[in-house]
Design a protein that fits this description.
Strand order of the largest sheet: 3-2-4
Radius of gyration: 18 Å
Structural class: alpha+beta
Shape: elongated
C-alpha cells in the first residue's frame, strides 16, 4: 500500500510499558453491559453515564487473562521487532507510561518532529 503512494516505512515505534502497568490499566477498565461504553477507573456494578446500564469487567480484561495475552504477545508478536531490526529498520522504543499527551510527545520527539 505504501509503495502505491510512493512512501516507505522508515521507522517502527515500539511502545514500552511494564507488564504490571498493563495489567493495572486493562483490569481497571469496565464496559457498560448495554451500550458497550468503556470506562477507566470505574468499578463493576457502577452505572453507565450514557444509558444507566451496569458496568462490568470483561473476561479478557481480568488480570489472569491479561497476563495470558502478554505471554501470547511475547511468543507470537514480539519476534516481529527482531525481524525489523535484522532488516536494518530503525526501531524506536518509546516509554509509554504516563498520559496520552506525554507519550505522544515522546513519540514525536523520537521521530524528530
Amino acid at each position: 500500500m505504501l509503495d502505491g503512494v510512493g512512501r516507505k516505512v522508515d521507522a517502527v515505534l515500539l511502545f514500552d510499558v511494564p507488564d504490571d502497568e498493563l495489567v493495572a490499566r486493562l483490569s481497571g477498565r469496565t464496559v457498560c453491559q448495554n451500550c458497550q461504553t468503556t470506562y477507566s477507573g470505574r468499578s463493576p456494578g457502577d452505572r453507565c453515564d450514557k444509558c444507566g446500564g451496569t458496568l462490568v469487567l470483561r473476561k479478557d480484561d481480568e488480570p489472569a487473562a491479561v497476563m495470558n495475552r502478554l505471554a501470547v504477545y511475547r511468543e507470537q508478536t514480539e519476534p516481529v521487532i527482531g525481524w525489523y531490526r535484522n532488516h536494518a529498520m530503525k526501531v524506536l522504543t518509546i516509554d509509554a507510561t504516563g498520559g496520552v499527551d506525554e507519550v505522544t510527545a515522546r513519540a514525536m520527539k523520537a521521530l524528530g518532529k
